[in-house]
From TrEMBL:
<protein>
    <submittedName>
        <fullName>Protein N-acetyltransferase, RimJ/RimL family</fullName>
    </submittedName>
</protein>
<dbReference type="InterPro" id="IPR000182">
    <property type="entry name" value="GNAT_dom"/>
</dbReference>
<dbReference type="GO" id="GO:0016747">
    <property type="term" value="F:acyltransferase activity, transferring groups other than amino-acyl groups"/>
</dbReference>
<dbReference type="InterPro" id="IPR016181">
    <property type="entry name" value="Acyl_CoA_acyltransferase"/>
</dbReference>
<keyword id="KW-0808">Transferase</keyword>
<feature type="domain" description="N-acetyltransferase">
    <location>
        <begin position="9"/>
        <end position="160"/>
    </location>
</feature>
<dbReference type="Pfam" id="PF13302">
    <property type="entry name" value="Acetyltransf_3"/>
</dbReference>
Amino acid sequence: MTEVWPAQLLVRPLTTEDAGQIAEWRYDGPWRIYDSRPEDGLMSDNAAYLAVAGVDGGPLVGFCCSGAEATVPGLKPEDGVLDVGVGMNPAMVGQGNGAHFASAVLDHYRSTTGIHRLRAVVQSWNERSLRLTRSLGFVEVGKHMCEQSGATVEYTVVIAE
């Protein structure tokens, strides 16, 4: 089912109801690797996870996290750089709204933390997300390999100033 995209987005604390919805999200094809798992920690009282939704109770568009929760295993923190991660409602993916969603997240972190250098990692096969990061001003700074669920995964590391 396709959701109606809200005109304005709000980044707010993640509620238990939000976490329950996210736990049910299922992606198609190779994007299934982004399906939520219990070990993702969204159901915990962890304030590092935030919801991205329409203002005035609009639909849940996605979630974001920062810091250690957004850092893949083995990637070292960098002074003056904030690691960020996002997940978008699969019913809203592929409708041309990724830049709107990601911009709301980036603006939120820049305004609340004062940190303007943001780092993200994208699985290297995910050209759709890599195109989005480039359109938002991120530049590739390297590759990162890590073991996840018994497999070696290659990530592209990108930073936006």
